Amino acid sequence: MVGEKIKMYRLEKGMNMSELAERAGVAKSYLSTIERDIQKNPSVQFLEKVAPVLDTDIYSLLGISASNGSSGEELDEEWKELVGEAMNSGISKEEFSNFLEFSRWKMSQG
């Protein structure tokens, strides 16, 4: 999903992979693995370099919208900070998803 978003933004900007890699200061081979969905969890550092070149932000690349998807409320700054902290700590989306699943299970046992 992240790779698809990066490719979409890149193509909207009329850039090829080499141009994006050069402007962002990232390896073209790594960018290619992201766009082809071989590497599914790019580093935060990679996203921080690529997002500004694509005139977007990390949240957009990750597909995190302004709403939380359930009540239509806006994602507040505290949630954005928590997401940023999780990303910076090295937690993968899969690990975070597993944590949420475990938490739901534990609450249902309750």
Task: Explain this structure.
This protein has 110 residues and is mainly α. The chain has a single domain (2-109), classed as 434 Repressor (Amino-terminal Domain). Helix content is 65%, strand content 0%. The chain has helices at 2-12, 17-24, 28-35, 44-53, 58-62, 77-88, 93-109. Helix 1 packs across helix 3 (28-35) and helix 2 packs across helix 4. The protein is elongated and about 55 Å long. Residues 66-73 have low confidence and may be disordered. It comes from Alkalicoccus halolimnae. Residues 66-104 form the Sin domain. Pfam families: HTH_3, SinI. InterPro entries: Cro/C1-type_HTH (IPR001387), Lambda_DNA-bd_dom_sf (IPR010982), SinR/SinI_dimer_dom (IPR010981), SinR/SinI_dimer_dom_sf (IPR036281), TransReg_Diox_bact_type (IPR050807). This is DNA-binding anti-repressor SinI.
Topology (SSEs and partners):
Elements: H1 2-12, H2 17-24, H3 28-35, H4 44-53, H5 58-62, H6 77-88, H7 93-109
Protein name: DNA-binding anti-repressor SinI
Organism: Alkalicoccus halolimnae
Keywords: DNA-binding
As a whole number of angstroms, the C-alpha radius of gyration is: 16 Å
Structurally, the number of domains stands at 1
Q: What's the main sheet like?
A: none
Strand content: under 5%
Which topology does CATH recognise? Answer: 434 Repressor (Amino-terminal Domain)
Helix content: 55-70%
Give the total of beta strands: 0
N-to-C series of helices and strands = HHHHHHH
CATH homologous superfamily annotation: lambda repressor-like DNA-binding domains
The shape is elongated
Instruction: Give the termini distance in whole angstroms.
Output: 35 Å
Unreliable stretches: 66-73
CATH class: Mainly Alpha
Estimate the mean pLDDT confidence: 83
CATH architecture: Orthogonal Bundle
What is the structural class? mainly alpha
